């Protein structure tokens, strides 16, 4: 606990936390007359509990919460369609949950991928011969990611057997899903060993959202995250780590914007801007997952929010 207080002091957050008013997070409940997003997972690629972890964070902290790997769903009410953002190892449970409220004859109407790290595309395996044996599920993917899937097994078999149909997309392309729904991919800096990495802007009739589950540091991006958040109604942002003190690895190998850094970037913004931010993609070491530390409560009091499995957001 003391280590994290020191970190808060480092980022000049303690005073803000101590004097903040308790602004509770409002749970969004769409009317189901409008299109909406659904949070389908909040954990980092390896999930929570984490493989090989015998610490308290993975043994005493789960409760009844669902900690599937990070994904969101998009439901098109008018056209009775469902889309996934990310194909995670938990794709079976996530699709099942997404379709509870809006059942149609298709498994899923399309999957948007961000990049080639395991938690973001490996769920595609369940569409193949050994599992579902799907037929031409549209997979929206950037050029390098498309090439990676075409040229490397077992993913190439999904293509050759027509389990999936690759739909190439590009930076800043307007992808029109319906008259009221548009998706725009945009490149972000990340460890691009096998593919480029993108975030998405999802634009509905009335509201819009950012989805950036993985990025290096905000200052390495050629855009201002503050301006980008101001331009939307919801912003689901990379919150892999609270600080660099959590793991015994060099952060230069796995850079992410710390929650503490993101909070500091937005510390002078209006409460209504902070309220747009929903932290997502938590590593199992992240102390915000530990309810005994009450760190999450302190951040909520500052006006920020946390993505939670099952929460829905009207578009």
**CATH fold field value:** Metallo-beta-lactamase, Chain A
Trace the largest sheet across and list its strands: 6-5-4-3-2-1-14
- CATH architecture title: 4-Layer Sandwich
What is the mean predicted local confidence, pLDDT? 85
Strand portion, in percent? 15-25%
Ranges where pLDDT stays below 50 over 5 or more residues in a row are 14-25
Topology pattern, helix = H, strand = E: HHEHEEHEHEHHEEEEEHEHHEHEE
CATH superfamily: Ribonuclease Z/Hydroxyacylglutathione hydrolase-like
**Could you give the count of β-strands?**
14
Q: What is the CATH top level name?
A: Alpha Beta
Specify the overall morphology.
globular
Q: Count of helical segments?
A: 11
Helix content: 10-25%
Alpha-beta content class: alpha/beta
| CA-atom Rg in angstroms | 19 Å
Largest sheet data? 7 strands, mixed
Number of domains: 1
Overview of the structural elements:
The protein is of the alpha/beta class. It has a single domain (2-17, 31-314), classed as Ribonuclease Z/Hydroxyacylglutathione hydrolase-like (Metallo-beta-lactamase, Chain A), CATH 3.60.15.10. It is 23% helix and 21% strand. The chain has helices at 2-10, 14-19, 56-59, 91-101, 118-121, 143-151, 155-160, 225-230, 259-265, 271-274, 295-301; strands at 36-41, 71-76, 81-85, 111-112, 137-141, 164-168, 175-178, 181-187, 198-203, 208-212, 234-238, 277-280, 305-306, 312-314. The strands form 2 sheets. Strands 6-5-4-3-2-1-14 form a 7-stranded mixed beta sheet. Strands 7-8-9-10-11-12-13 form a 7-stranded mixed beta sheet, with helices on one face. The longest helix has 11 residues, at 91-101. The chain is globular, with a radius of gyration of 19 Å. The protein starts with a helix and ends with a strand.
